[in-house]
Design brief:
The protein is built from six helices and five strands, in the order βαβαβαβαβαα. The chain has about 180 residues and is of the alpha/beta class. Strands 2-1-3-4-5 form a five-stranded parallel beta sheet, sandwiched between helices. It is globular.
Amino acid sequence: MIAPVVIITGGTGGLGRALADEFSRSGSTVFHPGSAELDVRDTESVSAYFNRLEHIDVLINNAGITGDALFSRLDESDWDAVLRTNLKGAFLCAREAAKRMVRQRSGSIVQIGSYSALHPPVGQSAYAASKAGLIGLTKSLAKELGSRNIRVNCVLPGFLETRMTAGLPEAARSAALSRHALGRF
């Protein structure tokens, strides 16, 4: 049996690293490039990276940034950076993966969204908008690609202990913890 080929964008961060480890343990061939190897914001970088791979079974769009700021203080360049990474990056990678999956007539695309898409906290308008957009993209792709035996899903994890969340103020961490049914991250 040929090992499934899995690509995990943002695969060097906390969640991405855990996903890469788990898929590797299950026998998959895992590619989890960092941003130097795959700039998800750049069409040419994405095309060049995916062109190295003939077959892809699973794409996990996990690359993301937060850009937290109150809306009144949110700089347009920060807004653009968040949308470019979180939403455009997922679009570009899904488009490249889908080309191969359509030829294969199988595959799975998993978007890593966020609880913030449905319940955005103060100061995360760019992040919440990007993750809400990811839900819409996922639903549309699922309808377009489902007839070709390609599954497209979006997972909305709650707060996770990662480098991305490490710098949050204690008040924000406490507020996030209060929304967790298990009372832990």
